Task: structure prediction
Amino acid sequence: MEIKRYSFQQHGDDRGMLVALEELKDIPFSVRRIYYIYDTLAGVRRGFHAHKNLKQILVCVKGSCKLHLDNGFETEEVLLDKPYEGIYLDNNIWREMYDFSEDAVLLVLASEYYDEADYIRDYQKFLEFVNAGGK
Ligand code: TYD
Result:
């Protein structure tokens, strides 16, 4: 399963570090929405959905977490633990997030506004959707 990883440019000096993300430059889509997940309780696993159209970049800007990714044919586990590394999630990828460190802040840049109709929250329906071509 091909997962696109981004290593963002770090601007560091004797004060510390800074990463800047610009849409259609560092981020391969126009960013309509930003959200972040934090204060995740120990042992929690969340996500359990895919999107029909939405594209996202995930960055664990603090702490660490893991992603279970599944395109309906292959799966992959990804560790996010660097504030300058992003993972691109195309549409039609089932995702679960787990193993959040206590201090984890998972930042998500999304290509669309929140739309419940874009979610596939049933794994069997996700498999049927991708096996039918994902459209
Ligand atoms: P949820 O979809 O359960 O998060 P995840 O699947 O990533 O674990 O979202 C939790 C709540 O937040 C739910 O009530 C919907 C709401 N929400 C928004 O209002 N806007 C958003 O952009 C997102 C991602 C969630």
User: Anything to note?
Assistant: The pocket of thymidine-5'-diphosphate is lined by residues 33, 35, 46-47, 49, 114 (CB under 6 Å). The CA atoms of residues 5 and 87 lie 5 Å apart. The longest strand covers residues 56-62. The domain at 4-11+21-131 is CATH 2.60.120.10 (Jelly Rolls).
